[in-house]
Amino acid sequence: MTNTLSNLAGLPFWKMNGLDNDFVIIDLRQSAAKMSPDAATMLGSREGHYGCDQIITLEQRSGEPYMGIWNADGSEAGACGNAARCIGWLLMKESGTQAVAFLSPSGEIEAHWIGHERISVDMGEPQLRWQDIPLAEQMDDTRFIDIKLGPIDNPVLWGPSAVNMGNPHCIFFVEDVNAHQLDRFGPMIEHHPLFPERANVSVAQVRGQYDIRLRVWERGVGITRACGTAACAALVAAHRRRLTARKAIVELDGGTLAIEWRESDDHVIMAGPVELEYTGTLSA
Q1: Fewer CB within a 10 Å sphere, N or C end of the chain?
Q2: pLDDT tens digits for 60-72?
Q3: pLDDT at 252 over 60
Q4: Contact present, 248 and 240 (Cβ < 8 Å)
């Protein structure tokens, strides 16, 4: 551990979560230190001192705050909605404002304070074309992609939707999210040849025009209590399949998020709570 984390020792960090999707957020704004895959893996390990789903770096790039995202397996991610709310909360606390903007691997994110430790973030436009998700094969209608689970003549699950919300997502619509062993088939779909960048895998149960129940296998993490980009992707996919309105409450294992696919500009807005668990400085 000493060699892996030595360049990060002494740096301040926050342990935060959004709906139990938890993060170690490291402040690199005054440091030349860099995150590495090995350090991310060590920090993310549940058997280690810290343990989390993702490691988030708060950096300064081109004079702007920047959020870097690392999964617990050491891989980098393009977006993280729950972490974006946490970063927004931190920056608003620092600045004493009720709105901030910061950069991420997927572009600029705007965050707004909506009261009672709840933050809304603009996650941008969903990417829906097969080459932008990306898929390995051309599929003109990504509302239904060619993946089946189980016997060919009687599959258990088939025809999921694909959406990119900064990360690729594969969403199966089911009658009961608890009736499917996501921990068994999640890894298979994450690494399916159709997804060259791997995929987050969800089972979604539409309970009403404004109500979705969701469970998520997150690439590089596994089963997670909540995934903000998956909640956004599920709402987009559900509306594209005419199952819901353009806004809904999405219930995950860790709690609920309010998601709206805004008609005026096609941006997806996510609102939900954040929690500061504790603060500290990293040790080698």
Answers
A1: C
A2: 998 999 999 999 9
A3: yes
A4: no
Distance, in Å, from the CA atom of 144 to the CA atom of 157, rounded to the nearest integer, reads: 12
Predicted TM-score (pTM) of the model is: 0.94
Q: What is the pLDDT of residue 206?
A: 98
Helix 228-240 × helix 81-95 angle, to 10°: 120
Catalytic residue among 52, 80, 86, 170: 80
User: ω before 187 within 30° of 0 (cis)?
Assistant: no
Q: How far apart are CA 92 and CA 100, in angstroms?
A: 6
- Across residues 127-133, what is the average pLDDT? 98
pLDDT for 3: 52
Report the largest interatomic distance among the alpha carbons of the chain, rounded to a whole angstrom.
60
Name which of 38, 35, 33 is nearest 3 in CA terms: 38
Which of these is catalytic: 52, 86, 170, 227? 227
**Is 52 among the residues known to form the active site?**
no
- CA distance linking residue 201 with residue 31, whole number of Å: 36
For residue 140, the model assigns a pLDDT of 93
